[in-house]
Amino acid sequence: MDQPARTLVVFHAHPDDEALLTAGTMARAAAAGHRVVLVVATDGALGQADESTFGTKGDALAATRSRELAASARALGVARTVELGHADSGSGPDVWPDPPGGRRFVRVPVDEAAEAVSQILVEEQADVLTTYDPHGGYGHRDHVHVHEVGARAAELARERGVDVRVLWATVPRDLICRAIDLVARVYRFPPEFDRSSFDRAFSASAEITHRVPVRRFAAAKRASMRAHASQASAAGGDDRTLGMLVRIPRPLYDLVFGREWFVDPDAPPGTTATDVFEGLA
After folding, report:
1. Residue 41 DSSP SS3
2. Model confidence pLDDT, tens digit, residues 155-201
3. CB of 25 closer than 8 Å to CB of 38
4. Does the keyword Magnesium apply (predicted)?
């Protein structure tokens, strides 16, 4: 029996985060006739980029990344994209001063940011909301804030009659470490890539509740990654991780990115679902 049409809201911190963690699931849901809504918290203006091609950090890069986000959304079949417009908080040791007329996302109170997201959940009558795990995957401060804001937004939506399921988009850390080691036999990772950071990032395999097969949508995921061209290279044109990933040959790419993973914090131990909508009433 076919599922009824559902609504999936994916909440990410920066333009390009959707490409890496949830693009296959988004494309799969859209292809099945479900509504997919992409919500992005920040403008990505502090992302690393080749300034000679994409402009310096700030408004110029933010405009570029907004266009790239729109291209990614088209490749994945997204029905609606919402850019909340908060300023990128950056990944360095210190949070930059707020830009004129704006605030770094991490300085926006949880309740305030969650109110905007909850309104989207209610408008869309969302069935599933994806965020990040409590550590924000690899620990980026904006990702941690997305987790906190998303959890509160779901609470507010439930108070308003929308019983939304929350899933944490993640990766089994043991699997990603093996995949990185496999890719490293063929490609040299860029200097900023810290292999050791993945030994403590994301989620243990035992915590995963949803293992979603997305190999059929590898082409869409690859197109989503390619859309974020500004994040493929750094100053001087040196490769960044995203640039390296989009050049992996298709058979290996399909193997590495043929599945996406989620944790349902409310699911009973031992849950092993293969679809984000599985088990909904």
Report:
1. strand
2. 999 999 999 999 999 999 888 788 778 778 877 777 777 777 778 88
3. no
4. no
The domain in which residue 53 lies consists of: 7-263
In a domain, 139, yes or no: yes
The closest alpha carbon to 42, from 22, 17, 71, belongs to 17
User: CA-to-CA distance for 69 and 136, rounded, in angstroms?
Assistant: 20
Contact 37, 10 (CB under 8 A): yes
Ranges of beta strands (E only) in 172-242 are 210-213
CA dihedral angle for residue 40, residue 46, residue 51, residue 56, rounded to 10 degrees: 100
Number of folded domains that form the chain = 1
The answer to the question of residue 85 being in a domain is yes
Q: Which of these, 153, 223, 258, 212, lies nearest to 29 by C-alpha position?
A: 212
Judge contact between 206 and 144, C-beta under 8 A: no
First vs last C-alpha separation in the chain: 14
Pick from 64, 117, 116: which is nearest to 88 by CA?
A: 64
Q: What is the pTM of this model?
A: 0.92
Mean pLDDT across 264-268 = 95
What whole-number distance in Å separates Cα of residue 268 and Cα of residue 206?
12
Q: At 187, list the tokens.
A: 């490609």
Query: Which structure tokens are listed for 46?
Result: 């502090």
What are the pLDDT digits (tens) for 99-150?
999 999 999 999 999 999 999 999 999 999 999 999 999 899 999 999 999 9
CA distance 275 to 210: 7
User: Does a structural domain hold residue 277?
Assistant: no
Chain centre distance of CA 163: 22
Average confidence (pLDDT) over 261-281: 94
